């Protein structure tokens, strides 16, 4: 992951990041109202070439077989490449302050404790 995504690539990635399952080009078309298949197909190829997505299998759309795609790079990993340490710390602090989930906070605590032990070695 070396480069920033174009507007359309980012639109497609956001749909894939939000999805709970692999999506076909037709699924993406249905989820992005102002895009055409002529835009989706080349951008999917670019995203595969850049290493952001992969084909996870095949599915069916009406009477045709289609490839389904999944992200290889998480949204947080992509965003973190463009933030400095201070901004990342601010995001972490904002997350802690705004969280209302004890489970999420415990998971974060466990990760912090694990990293501290790793740094102590």
TrEMBL record:
Keywords: DNA-binding, Transcription, Transcription regulation. InterPro entries: BlaI_family, WH-like_DNA-bd_sf, WH_DNA-bd_sf. The keyword Mitochondrion does not apply. The keyword Transport does not apply. Gene3D superfamilies: Winged helix-like DNA-binding domain superfamily/Winged helix DNA-binding domain. One of its GO terms (biological process) is negative regulation of DNA-templated transcription. Coiled coil: none annotated. Signal peptide: none annotated. It comes from the Bacteria. GO terms for molecular function: DNA binding. Belongs to the BlaI transcriptional regulatory family. This is Copper transport operon or penicillinase transcription repressor. It comes from Faecalicoccus pleomorphus. The lineage of its organism: Bacteria, Bacillati, Bacillota, Erysipelotrichia, Erysipelotrichales.
């Amino acid at each position: 992951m070396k480069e920033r995504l174009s507007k359309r690539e980012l639109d497609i990635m956001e749909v894939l990041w939000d999805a709970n399952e692999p999506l076909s080009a037709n699924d993406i078309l249905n989820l992005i109202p102002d895009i055409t298949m002529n835009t989706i197909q080349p951008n999917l190829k670019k995203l595969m070439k850049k290493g952001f997505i992969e084909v996870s299998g095949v599915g069916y759309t009406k009477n045709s077989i289609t490839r389904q795609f999944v992200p290889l790079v998480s949204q947080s990993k992509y965003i973190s490449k463009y933030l400095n340490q201070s901004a990342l710390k601010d995001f972490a602090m904002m997350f802690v302050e705004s969280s209302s989930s004890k489970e999420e906070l415990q998971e974060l605590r466990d990760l912090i404790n694990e990293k501290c032990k790793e740094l102590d070695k």
